[in-house]
Amino acid sequence: NEGALWGGRFESGPAAAMAALSKSTHFDWVLAPYDTRASMAHAKVLHSAGLLGEADLATMLDGLERLAADVASGAFTPSESDEDVHGALERGLIDRVGPEVGGRLRAGRSRNDQVATLFRMWLRDAVRRVAAGVLDVVDALATQAAAHPAAVMPGKTHLQAAQPVLLAHHLLAHAHPLLRDVQRIVDFDKRAAVSPYGSGALAGSSLGLNPDAIAAELNFDAAADNSIDATSSRDFAAEAAFVLAMIGVDLSRMAEEVIIWSTPEFGYITLADAWSTGSSIMPQKKNPDVSELTRGKSGRLIGNLTGLLATLKAQPLAYNRDLQEDKEPVFDSVAQLELLLPAITGLVSTLEFHTERMAELAPAGFTLATDIAEWMVRQGVPFRVAHEAAGACVRVAEARGVGLEDLTDEELAGVDPALTPGVREVLTVEGSISSRDARGGTAGVQVARQLDGVRESLDTL
Ligand code: ARG
């Protein structure tokens, strides 16, 4: 078992199928830049503890630096015999500085505390990139909202005509969950910023190494309080996988609407050529593939979260090799979002809205009925009575094949004497919308206020 990190007590090396099963370099190599950086920090605490002389420290740091450069350039890669990223990099270090100095690095450190630390480092950086991508989507939504301050549309519940709303209000309804996802990432980092380094295999180190010094050197807020917990828990990874899945789910809700809105039956939007695809057989096709891939990949992100939770369930303390399965789902969720987010930003910022069509449909399906009832309440009528009366107006209009706004004064009064012509002030889409002017409502003033708030969050997050 030449070059492996273990082997003293073994007479033979692993069987080929054992080695193949054990191997993780094909996915954990992304941790290599973090591994070399953390090794430099570890070398310094070995030196501070008197376990590595001045000259050896300099040799080791120089070797690690050259190794990091070779990793970055692709000149150094894992070989067939390397089990994982950690073993490969120790081989690389020993190649560069020899076994006498290179063989000292591993003192007081186990792959268990090492991989837990490196995974946290990688993830803290990765979710920061994801957050930036999410904020780009929010920015695109806010820009579209600002470009359509007065456009109206049919608001729906159960996908049925409900009440008219401003398009900007609807667009910002997709911005808020995404902003909360970014806040979740910020919050995640508080818990992720704790360093397991110094925990060793599970029980801590006897060599007088200072975990706080290494934590600070690697940009963590603190070192872990419990070495058993630090090497065996992966709730930080599950938490990140949840936030990534939530982002996928939030994007999928928007994607679904883009798919529906771009059908001729809705006709709300046209997609830009650059963000749609054609058909190999049907020449007329323009398909919303960005949105469909978003919808599809959100299922994959949910799978990554549930798969990881299943891996973690009921593992006894402390480290178990099951934990090697923790990385791929999280790496994958990040990779999928890094593909999706720029495409969704492109899609949203180039959507062309057919505002006349949306305005025409806004009152369809008697969406002003609630306005009649609420207007009557403002005149002192009990809501129960008003609800009945507005329903009767719908019945009359439906029978005559007209909209609520087309009812005559006589027809209105015939339903309920309280329905004087004054009700007409809310029997327009604009009247209905501007009457909903309390905080959070769809009135123009409130939506403008809301947009300011979203912009402010974009500036501060
Ligand atoms: N490659 C492992 C992982 O990703 C770390 C190695 C720990 N191996 C061990 N035998 N303790 O979790």
UniProtKB/TrEMBL annotation:
One GO biological process term: L-arginine biosynthetic process via ornithine
UniProt keyword list: Amino-acid biosynthesis, Arginine biosynthesis, Cytoplasm, Lyase
Domain Fumarate lyase N-terminal: 8-303
Primary localization class, coarse: cytoplasm
Cited PROSITE patterns: FUMARATE_LYASES
Enzyme Commission code: 4.3.2.1
A GO term for molecular function: argininosuccinate lyase activity
Amino-acid biosynthesis is among the record's keywords: yes
Coiled coil: none
Keyword 4Fe-4S carried by entry: no
Domain spans labelled Argininosuccinate lyase C-terminal: 366-433
Cited InterPro entries: Arg_succ_lyase_C (IPR029419), Argininosuccinate_lyase (IPR009049), Fumarase/histidase_N (IPR024083), Fumarate_lyase_CS (IPR020557), Fumarate_lyase_fam (IPR000362), Fumarate_lyase_N (IPR022761), L-Aspartase-like (IPR008948)
Parts of the chain that traverse the membrane: none
One Gene Ontology CC term in the entry: cytosol
Reaction catalysis annotation: 2-(N(omega)-L-arginino)succinate = fumarate + L-arginine
Pathway recorded for this protein: Amino-acid biosynthesis; L-arginine biosynthesis; L-arginine from L-ornithine and carbamoyl phosphate: step 3/3
PANTHER family on file: ARGININOSUCCINATE LYASE
Protein name: Argininosuccinate lyase
